[in-house]
Amino acid sequence: QVQLVESGGGLVQAGGSLSLSCAASGRTFSSYTMGWFRQAPGKEREFVAAITWSGGTRYYADSVTGRFAISRDNAKNTVYLQMNSLKPEDTAVYYCAAKSTRLGSLRSDSNYNYWGQGTQATVSS
User: Which of 16, 18, 43, 92 has its CA 20 to 30 Å from the CA of residue 85?
Assistant: First the structure.
């Protein structure tokens, strides 16, 4: 079992930055691919970014490429999402998730086994 707790959301003006963290419990954190997803009001949850177990490979949605950066510290059982140049359309609840197997696309939320409760990020225009 893995428990995930996000933090770091808040309110920021367009062009600003937010830094999200996701702390994981469990001894096998370092073996999981970790992802960030977001869900805006009235919209489906969408992929934002993912990072493989070693941190060697990172993936991003086109909408955030060049603005967001995902990283992880396996010694601290934590994954991060640095969000820069934020836009109002980035407003959403952001969720971190853990994927225990190599099967299935890491861009699909259906392939993740564990989820945090989410943290709200609001970008004002």
Answer: 43
